[in-house]
Fold this sequence. Notes:
Layout: H1 2-5, E1 11-16, H2 19-31, E2 35-40, H3 46-59, E3 64-67, H4 82-100, H5 104-110, E4 113-118, H6 131-151, E5 156-163, H7 169-172, H8 184-196, E6 201-204, H9 208-217, H10 220-227
Parallel strand pairs: 1-2, 3-4, 4-5, 5-6
Helix pairs in contact: 3-4, 4-6
Amino acid sequence: MARVYAAPGIHLALGDLNTDRLEVLATACRALGATVDGHVVDVTDRAGMAAWIEGADARQPLDLVISLAGISRGTARREEKMEEVRAVFDVNLNGMLNTIEPVLPLMRKRRRGQIALMSSQAGSRGFPVAPSYCATKAAIRVYAEGLRARLLRENIGVSVIIPGFIESPMTDANPYPMPFLISAERAAHIIKRGLARNKPRLRFPQPIPAAMYLLSLLPPSWVDRFIALK
């Protein structure tokens, strides 16, 4: 996402937990002409996130805030442990709240801005491989939809991103086939186009959204037998 947005005249405020990874990304974005403010931060640190985001906004008002941080711990071979479930909820949900909480009052004061929250097609239903991941992504989708309706009158857009499988370290760990897997670069371009149009939901790639909708029409007992771990 950062590389797709990086261009002359664009200011990026990038947060990451990994110092080396952040520096590599910041260097790449600067080479594309963007001004970059990089900061090492943990999304679960509420105070740290607030200090970073408020400071970044003071230096350059934030027009678009994209909450992307997310983890998953369950696999088809190993059941997630309870401490891992709590970690997933902490990063995926509290991390999202810690990202938008500091900037919302600033955008509301200016009466402009845009927020994008990362959900997933996995949030369409609970799957046994990673129930906690599915639950957090479902919560993010519903929260984004409600937040959008609340903020429309204040000229603040909210979009929820609902992708299928995207190439990443998370999907690299999956030992099972992932239909319609797309590259992170292609996904970033799709997201950028959708956000430019202030779309409420960004569902991709087809035909996964259609397949998930059809799955939702089936009796839950049928689906349980189909997706149960063998």
